[in-house]
Specification:
This protein has five helices and two strands; from the N terminus they run ααββααα. With about 100 residues, the chain is mostly helical. A hairpin with a 2-residue loop joins strand 1 (about 40-45) and strand 2. About 5% of the residues are buried.
Length: about 100
């Protein structure tokens, strides 16, 4: 173990202080910016960074399912959320709808 600690110390000593400091600053900026851009979801005790679902994301996913021949399933999903068309789905259900669509295809 002493040899391992000695190797780490010599490796750290070989690096200039500026590069270590710069890497820490870049890492801190990356963490701050990614936290600001992501929405946190806590489910069953786990933390998952996730983007908020947009209408365009739903359109893209559902268009792929239509091309795969799953129109009936998509219409059933839309009706489940009280809509006949995608723009009629309330935004609060976008996340659930995308999750359900992903299960289909």
């Amino acid at each position: 173990m002493t040899n391992h600690v000695h190797n780490l110390e010599s490796a750290n000593a070989a690096q200039p202080a500026n590069s270590v400091r710069e890497r820490r600053q870049v890492a801190a900026k990356t963490v701050k910016s990614s936290k600001a851009e992501q929405v946190c979801s806590v489910q069953a005790g786990s933390w998952e960074p996730r983007q908020s679902v947009t209408l365009e994301m739903l359109r893209t996913k559902l268009a792929g399912l239509v091309q795969a021949g799953q129109q009936c399933e998509i219409r059933a999903l839309l009706r489940h959320y009280g809509a006949e068309r995608l723009p009629d789905v309330p935004t609060k259900y976008f996340d659930e709808l995308l999750h359900a669509a992903e299960k289909l295809g």
